[in-house]
What we know:
By secondary structure, this protein is mainly α. Helix content is about 70%, strand content about 0%.
Amino acid sequence: xxxxxxxxxxxxxxxxxxxxxxxxxxxxxxxxxxxxxxxxxxxxxxxxxxxxxxxxxxxxxxxxxxxxxxxxxxxxxxxxxxxxxxxxxxxxxxxxxxxxxxxxxxxxxxxxxxxxxxxxxxxxxxxxxxxxxxxxxxxxxxxxxxxxxxxxxxxxxxxxxxxxxxxxxxxxxxxxxxxxxxxxxxxxxxxxxxxxxxxxxxxxxxxxxxxxxxxxxxxxxxxxxxxxxxxxxxxxxxxxxxxxxxxxxxxxxxxxxxxxxxxxxxxxxxxxxxxxxxxxxxxxxxxxxxxxxxxxxxxxxxxxxxxxxxxxxxxxxxxxxxxxxxxxxxxxxxxxxxxxxxxxxxxxxxxxxxxxxxxxxxxxxxxxxxxxxxxxxxxxxxxxxxxxxxxxxxxxxxxxxxxxxxxxxxxxxxxxxxxxxxxxxxxxxxxxxxxxxxxxxxxxxxxxxxxxxxxxxxxxxxxxxxxxxxxxxxxxxxxxxxxxxxxxxxxxxxxxxxxxxxxxxxxxxxxxxxxxxxxxxxxxxxxxxxxxxxxxxxxxxxxxxxxxxxxxxxxxxxxxxxxxxxxxxxxxxxxxxxxxxxxxxxxxxxxxxxxxxxxxxxxxxxxxxxxxxxxxxxxxxxxxxxxxxxxxxxxxxxxxxxxxxxxxxxxxxxxxxxxxxxxxxxxxx
Length: 669
């Protein structure tokens, strides 16, 4: 029998047959599968398994849905439908070989496979795990049919699992059915547990393995390294070597990620040397070389990273992007831009990396220029790109650039979700437009704790303490506050003098919300009490703290002492602050000013002398003006600016106008 290229009438007839058959499937019509033995074609298992039957041979050669319909019609005509082996071939073909016919496989399984075997069940579980979440329904059917699952069943179920509870149930079933001893299944379980952050369960699986291999330890090392558990990952490596297992390049990948996460350049160099001695790394091994570069970039050893890059015979986009991102993050934008320019094929990551570097510097003009070039090359920006644009505006307080970015997002009809919305709120309040920040806040439909916290922080820094506290209580109808939220609301209370409310919120952290106050929260409390002049309570809080006071706490005490003229407490705070950061000028200057304000000039001069003897210099304060996306900074009597003459003439004009305005007002009075 040959599959013919059917004409219009043949195809129409076949479609009618197909519609009829589908109707049979939906209604559970099983008369074909229950036909009498006299009407059936006998099925020889030997011939079946050898695929010598003419219809199955055609199925192996089938490439289109129309041809599949013809073969299905032929199988039904010869009353082979419903027999286990032909159905296994049909289902495997339509579900696995050509998954676009998965709908047919589901109907065949549900309505024309009265006695599915384990192979059919596994085929369906595997196929549905990739497209639909029906694998567990098929598995329940398998159990009800008293078919015994094997290791492949559980592997396919793990592919379909989305939640930890499902993985744990699969784990239990594998133990009960005796399939758990299969090493590939154990490794798969460990990998999933590690991805879901259940390090203890993954370790438990490793301990239960009869003979863990190098793959098992590689999974553990890589999983622990990605989660930042450097010490534990190293212990697994030592255990692996102790068992006589030979580390391979995947082991080294895990160790390099570990070194990069912990920014341990010394350990990273040791791993690099170990790799070189065993000739694991070659100039053609891109994966390992890229991992080495990534590790050195994270450890800020960019010269070594570049030497590895230069030695590569072949470079991919990851190689180039690693170097661009590394130099951009450290602020070496000229080098980063040169790598970017020479890169043969730039992708979205390349553009985001270079834009992020200029955004970090606050160069809005360059950020917008790069964004325009990116659009010209038909690279579609993503949320990371927009966050970089917003961050550039927030960095220098450029409201015009921030509004331009917001307008672009609205024009492109991008959804402003919680992540992007919190970035816009942060940018607007930092640029001085708390009204626009409120507008964005109200337009976000699904607010997470970050959105609420960002808005509370904006109110706090703009002096709207009442609104910040009100929003703090309002948010609890939707989400619970976290540690950062409490810092924001306590800052609002501190800036606006809400002492009683601030104390109530601080002491409710542990009692009501189960959050243990950290050093930052105690810093806010000290600042709150210090600003109100309650130095006895400040002293009690510092003495009762479960941790040592930080620089910020003593700095807050010193600032409060200056505001209230408390020299005695200032001396204590000043001494403690200078112990913690003797190289910084802030503590010296504050203490010297406090002495000067109280008329103790000898003490003030002595502090200045100590400051000079320690080699500490006061950094001059400066003001900044953003013009066309570029920051122009000035210090007092600064004549270094190239347009100083013009600036000076404008200042004189402004001064004279202000003087004229004052005189005019006096005359009116």
